[in-house]
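Batch job 17 of 40 flagged for manual review because the log was empty.
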Amino acid sequence: MCVAADSVDGTIRHAWITEAPTANNNKGSLTEEGVENIANHKYVPGHYTSMDTLLDPFWKYMTEFLPMTMAPNMVTFIGAMHCALAYATVWYYSANFDKHCPDWVIFMCGYCTITYYTFDCMDGKQARRTGTSSPLGQLFDHGFDCMCTLSHISSVAQFLRIGGDPKWLMVFQTSLQLSFLMAQWEEYYTHILPHAQGDFGVTEMNYGIGLFTIMNAFIDRDALWGALVKDKLPSKIVEEFNYIPEAVLNMEFKHFGLAAWFGLVIFVTASCIVRVLTHERVVANGGIGLKLSALSKLFSPLIICVTPFLLPKEVMVNETRYIAVSTGLLFSYLTKKMICFSMAKQTYATFQVEAIPYCAIMLWIRLDDNITAEGASLLLKALCVWNAYRLVNWASIAIDQICKRLDIYCFTIKQKKA
């Protein structure tokens, strides 16, 4: 079923399950036409916030210290490795986010978040400085961004110690990853990637998370985040605002913070939906049909958000990390695919078949009473391996296709022929 009769731009077409056959007899990640569209893609960024403007000279200054021989994608990769280091260190000390981590680990996580984002802001400047700007840079940059959200989630989950409340962890993780995917979904339909809501954007978010994490390295985290809201509020406020629900007053401070975060995500995602459904491109190219098609693209991500909550409580408590990893890798896969398909102008199907193994294993663990704790653990570990393989394999094939078309290397600067 097609929403519009456009033969070139697949983003205004609809597909339920089957997407266009890819290059190399369906062995590629992208179609030949899609690769050509990526080669001709022009990046349209969102507006700068006040902090972006303030820090831009600093990012340019730091970029001057990079060797002229360093490829922009290597700058992105170095930044991302800081997130990998933070994630691995937290995993070592607290596999399920329920054990105490040394203060230096929390400090390091905050430092790595700030350093990662600083490199993330430098890679584009390095590309312009070396004359090597390319569409691959945008894909590489945003692809690693969606992976690095796992590190941010890990850092916050650790200092809040919400591993003992795995449902709260999954609310936090899925809401953050869904909001990131929806930013790419908005670009898919409007061709503009939103960086900010008003004067608050990704710069404020990333540096804010980093500084907030560092702050938590110097306080008694259990005393703060484990306390009840009513114990932290001045008694005068509690008495004066007597309409505050008792359920809120009896919430642990960490749960109150996560609930507030979830409320913010609902506002951001609702704003995103409104912008897409009212955008002139959507209205002009399909009207109600394209609007319904656009909304249907959120079906698979929403199913992924809900599915972990079907698991038995003991499995969620004992296998928190592997549930988080398998969910995060699948979200990263679908987000990368959305980013690529947006630039390639390919049709992104409503039902993403990559979500089937994930949902099937979660349902199997939920419904089969004969599965032991060890069996459930093995299935979730296998799911992590499978999702990691699918992510790396699909991304590496896409990168290879794009590099061949642009006649560039991914991690090094190709010397121009004389």
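Reviewer: the log was empty due to a logging misconfiguration, but the result itself is present. The first strand starts at residue 196 and ends at 197. Unflagging and moving on to job 18.
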